[in-house]
Amino acid sequence: MEGVVQGVGFRPFVYSLAKSWQLSGVVGNNSLGAFVELEGSEDAVAGFQRDLRLQAPPLAVIDRVTAREVTPTGLQTGFRIAGSQLARLGQTQIAPDCATCADCLRELTDPDDRRYGYPFINCTNCGPRLTIVQDVPYDRPRTTMAGFPMCEPCRREYDDPGDRRFHAQPVCCADCGPRLRLSGFEGGPGEVIAKVAQLLREGQIVAVKGLGGYHLAVDATSDRGTRTLRQRKHRDEKAFAVMVSDLEMARSLAEIAPADELLLTSPARPIVLVPRREPAGLVAAAVAPGQRQLGLMLPYTPLHVLLMREFAGPLVLTSGNVSEEPIAFLDGDARQRLGGIADAFLTHDRPIHLRVDDSVARSFRGEPMLIRRSRGYAPRAIRLPVTAARPVLGCGAELKSTFCLAQGDSATLSPHLGDLKNYETFRSYADGITHLSRLVGISPVVVAHDLHPDYLSTKHAQELAESGLELAGVQHHHAHIASCLVDNGSPGPVIGVAFDGTGYGTDGTLWGGEFLVADLVQARRAGHLAAVPMPGGESAVRQPWRMAAAYCAQLAATPAVAQRYPREWEAVTRLAGSGFAAPPTSSAGRLFDAVACLVGVRDEVSYEGQAAVELEQLANQAARGWYQSEIREFGEMPFQIRGADLVAAVLADLERNVPAADIAMRFHRGLALSIADGCQLIRETSGLGTVALSGGVFQNVLLLELAVAHLERRGFKVLTHRRIPANDGGISIGQAAIAATRDAGSADAR
Amino acid sequence: LAHGAGGKASQTLTDAVFLEAFRNPLLEPLSDQAVFGIGNARLAFSTDSYVVRPLFFPGGDIGDLAVNGTVNDLAMAGARPLYLSAGFILEEGFPLESLTRVVASMARAANAAGVQIVTGDTKVVERGKADGCYLNTAGIGVIEHPFALTADAVKPGDAVLISGPIGEHGVTVMLARGELDIDSDLCSDTAPLHGIVADLLTAVDGVRCLRDATRGGVATIVNEIARAADVAVVFDERAIPMRAEVRGAAELLGIDPLYLACEGRFVAFVEGAQADAALASLRAHPLGTGAAIIGRVVADPPGLVLLKTEFGGTRIVDVLIGDPLPRIC
Ligand SMILES: [Fe+3]
Ligand SMILES: [Mg+2]
Ligand SMILES: [Zn+2]
Ligand SMILES: [Zn+2]
Where is the YrdC-like domain positioned along the sequence (chain A) (predicted)? Predict the structure, then answer.
């Protein structure tokens, strides 16, 4: 049996299932997953096989069962559980970290239970996994629980096949397990948590050691507290995530759709972006300034559960870092880096082996849509619609970097890592590749990478190639579309619409508003947004007003924003016209920037994608009307959609004093219409009826909803993202899928 | 990335073509100059070609650039420059007055640097080629001190100094192309550096390596040294001297000033204990009044250059391949 079958209560489950069918034999773990040998009546064996899938434990994922006949012994010796074998033959899957299960929660709050109030309670159905595993096979000595010898009662549970804690590697109790600590305070867990709650109520900032790293916590209703946190973290505007005790508290702050509820309460417990109630009620303005949404999450460790009970209010729980740095996870490092931010440290002595950030999700059309796939999801394998001939590493992109390991038809996507330009992040990336390769037993032979020569991921791939690995370059937007194909289990071909910030094109220019005809082998650029100069390169990303200037230069228009930059506007306009330090780009993200600036959303951003996010939230969905842009065709050459037409319409409406919220809506409609028109053009020549929508721009659910509606009305089947992020976090799995498919093709040819 | 961005995979043209064909022990280090002995004398020998556009810019022109460039390549080996050659490749129709201006400027620069132009050559090519005028200079200098200044002498614990504010030449030339029509008081920093180098070598004996921060700027040359010495260099962002106009223009153009060329600034790697003495020596020279200690050499991670940012973050400063294109998706 292959899949997630280790450390999830699988062997005890098989044990009791075999017993119930009166079968004898053995179950054990090996490096492929788990194996079982059965002896008994034919009916019983068949019944066992059926129930195996139907009744599997909640965290188990059975990918594949391979069965063969062996000679019966004729002895009815009963059923037993074998210990782990240390053979390293192929793939095992380490489970993702999992929120505290209902059984453990009951024990946690039962005064008669021996683990009452113990902040590290867990069982085979829940608790830490990926974050504590040092090596495989998954056994206690190869986790960060190795330093906690089990006490007698814990050992008995661990050894009892009938117990919920049978072979639960992190099993522990107050007598033998990790201990909670509050800096400068002595006391048991109950007193510590009461004290922390008191500090929080006083508006203090507390660093809290969680599953995959440190958080910074502050009372979400305290404006002064959240403002202080922003100052100390050097995080000016990006919203903070908020932990709420339960769904009821979540509902008091935001509108929770059924799909959001499912996401919030799922074992992965991601941060879920939900529309906040107006007025926002309790939550301080500085938590999510200017946002119509809140990022909410429910407690996912026993420590969080206890803390939230005691604090009894919404709590900002944001990553423990300064500005651009990755989240701190090592105790010494956290003390050093967060010492100037936190007033107190709530920590414990169970080491974190792997840094894993919180995941972020939102719902779209009643389905989850992951924006950051990390804690609770990674490293669960994703099935590829192809079978790799040789093991593949996808090196990902640069900013929202992940990497991906693929073997056979199974792909493991790393947790979110972040901006590789940051040295700490880069080290996590390079070390993470080695670590995860060992955990999943995949030694890559082929290394897929982006075409951008200066991505550190590209350079890392080249570095790996020096030790004999084979390089496979994959164009950025092709990888986006491939990631969407993988997410939908389709090999293509499709019409791929990849809208994002920027990515390196096959012609060496910056793409980002692309219509591709693509499958998992190749992509043809069938159309794109007409290119505009990006004056000042990367500084145009930080300063959307420059994109406004670039578009306005094409239209010979001087908008109101020009007066806000009396000296620079002229210079940037000239820069746009000079072709010097102004690389042309067909980016959809930059078109959003230009419009956001023109309607007065903002001229400069403090984090990636901010202007576009705010433009989406500004849009008045009740507004009437839409804009239109011309599509210019060039025979065999890709068609071009004139984004400048949309900008011209924005300028005309501004002249007429149309409210910004209406303009924002009309712009979204106009772009969605262009997407549908472009796809229709491609259908006429290619006959393709399926469209895949990918790239960071499609995290904008307003645009996504409008585009999907248009396309479906015109008879297209539309593939969108669910489990794999549409942004650059999905690039690595797209690269891996393409490289694997190409490699399988050339293996066939050989 | 342990051995630096791109590593051997991105073998340069130099490695793949020229070194392959010409391989010899003097060429092998691929420094900006060769150092060898003839009789009792230790000599440095260097050549460089100049294809700057525009030919004339505030603070200089292709002529003094060609003299100072080769003088500086010799100076970086600690040599006293003596003799230069000059080769001219002229486009048919290149105005005589422009040529006269370039040559006069070369003569002035040579005088100022105390070198003589002792041999030369002229070729004229068809219209439309050579952008008016290309120059080549080669130079010979004599080394009169006992130090071997090489990249692999750099060790953890060394201090990294810069002789003055960065990026002025690079920004000046970009603005001089006229497309941007930006007024600025900036001038090229082009200057001969052998004098300030001689003072430095007299003042302290712990100088390990010198490098002028020309093409690719401070970021690129320091990466080369980090790789050659198998050490890491950590810059302190706040310590890097830069004129406000350079910062402003770089911001406008979206170019990281660390990658901007200088033609009269050099980076010195000096034994840590002598950093202050070295700084004092640099600042005592008219070309070094803006000198600063900008970083230090550490053992890990070998081959990488890091920048400690204002907020305490650590950014990788790598070698850029081609024109910088945004990496943000
Ligand atoms: Fe992208
Ligand atoms: Mg040179
Ligand atoms: Zn549990
Ligand atoms: Zn115990």
Answer: 190-376
